[in-house]
């Protein structure tokens, strides 16, 4: 259980206001809007959903973790464009420990997408090579997925 859950005190001032808004909207409506995030297409919404996932990891809100992962999985049906995917990788791998079931599953979703769209990501996402090199564990996870195919 997270420290926040144990203390039963939440200081939201240090978190991104858009992500906090999404979390609060979900708590009251069981949904949040990730469609007005930017103009770069649906793959660019990936980082926002990862930020929601990481925030609710911090506050231990399991149903919203599941919801954010579902939103992310919907986006994996889209072709890569822009740097949304590489930003999502960096946020997930650096923002969560990767030890819980939901975190492992979300990382597996990212890795599967990376392998399925490897060449397109190299061509379309300027940050993809950087996350392969600099984000600890990501390249190894992609290599493992590659060898499983």
Word description of this protein:
It is a single chain. The chain is mainly α and 149 residues long. The chain contains nine helices and no strands. It has helices at residues 3-7, 17-29, 46-59, 62-75, 84-95, 101-116, 118-124, 128-134, 138-148. α2 (17-29) crosses α3 (46-59) and α5 packs antiparallel against α6 (101-116). It is globular and about 45 Å long. The model has no long low-confidence stretch (mean pLDDT 86).
Question: Summarize this, please?
Answer:
The chain has 149 residues and is mostly helical.
Descriptive key words:
149 residues, mainly alpha
Strand content: under 5%
Helix content: 55-70%
Quote the average pLDDT: 86
Query: Total strand count, please?
Result: 0
Structural category: mainly alpha
* Helix/strand order, N-terminal first: HHHHHHHHH
Distance between the first and last residues' Cα? 36 Å
Number of helices: 9
Taken from the alpha-carbon principal axes, the silhouette is globular
For the CA atoms, what is the radius of gyration? 15 Å
Uncertain spans? none
What does the main sheet amount to? none
């Amino acid at each position: 259980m997270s420290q926040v859950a144990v203390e039963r005190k939440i200081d939201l001032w240090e978190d991104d206001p858009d992500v906090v808004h999404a979390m609060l909207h979900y708590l009251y409506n069981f949904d949040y809007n990730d469609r007005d995030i930017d103009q770069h297409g649906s793959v660019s919404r990936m980082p926002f959903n990862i930020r929601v996932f990481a925030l609710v990891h911090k506050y231990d809100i399991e149903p919203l973790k599941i919801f954010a992962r579902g939103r992310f999985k919907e986006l994996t049906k889209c072709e890569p464009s822009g740097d949304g995917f590489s930003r999502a990788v960096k946020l997930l791998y650096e923002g969560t420990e990767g030890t819980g079931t939901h975190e492992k599953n979300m990382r597996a979703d990212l890795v599967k997408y990376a392998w399925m769209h490897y060449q397109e990501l190299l061509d379309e996402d300027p940050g993809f090579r950087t996350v392969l090199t600099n984000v600890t564990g990501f390249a190894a996870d992609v290599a493992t997925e590659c060898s499983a195919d």
